[in-house]
User: Fold this.
Amino acid sequence: MNSVPGHSPELAGRTALVTGAGSGIGRACAAALAAAGAKVHLVDRDEAVRAVAEELGGAAHVVDLAQGDPARLLPTEVDVLVNNAGLQHVAPVHEFPPDRFELLQRVMVTAPFLLARHVLPHMYARGWGRVVNVSSVHGQRASAFKSAYVAAKHGLEGLSKVIALEGAEHGVTSNCVSPGYVRTPLVENQIADQARAHGVDRDRVVTDVLLTKHAIKELVEPDEVAHLVLWLCGDHAAHVTGSTFTLDGGWTAQ
Ligand code: NAD
Assistant:
């Protein structure tokens, strides 16, 4: 993606690890990092990650990030860590199942912490590293019925800032990318469910239900998120740290 004829690809010699790489945004990030010359470790609990890794020439790790310390099953020699795996559960607070609340925190906050503490010593030793956390507009804004997701993404934003402060003297940056609604299986399934529930067609669900808060009434594409992630991994972004980059069609401008 970023290679120019006659020049080394931007991430040649770097090793990346992407969680949730079997699908959606994580898959697009893994593809962009591989195209930029990185060796990529693709992590997912879903076996589908094996086929994606084969297609990209990367290494697959079928690991459930919610179980124990998932980092012990993964390599330490990682220069680019993309914390992307995530899931949603929708229910009012007073009916929210505590075990689901806990699961979302484990996958979207605790696992990124465990992975960061696992790979930061290698990044510090090399004097170079990139941590990119796939947050969400819900890292800055709340929506009703999404308590676990909103709490987790706000937590991830805080973790990202602390890693940025501690990594600063070691050449390690940490940032969040925060999309609005992205065209991934996670959202495609919601569209189908909502179309059935509301008795309207899929296009109406996208514009009138999902994208009410987007000024641009189109879903973000996974490749757009991957381009931003890749940009944050370049040497040109060495002073970009502790920040959040929204890709939300204007949602948070309101
Ligand atoms: P997706 O469902 O297509 O992909 C998520 C991947 O994470 C899946 O492959 C899933 O198997 C994996 N995963 C979930 N739990 C896991 C676990 N315990 N261990 C290992 N892997 C696990 O979803 P997506 O839309 O690509 O979401 C990726 C990230 O982007 C998530 O953090 C999500 O919160 C965030 N995000 C998505 C949207 C959107 O509209 N799609 C918007 C904002 C933020």
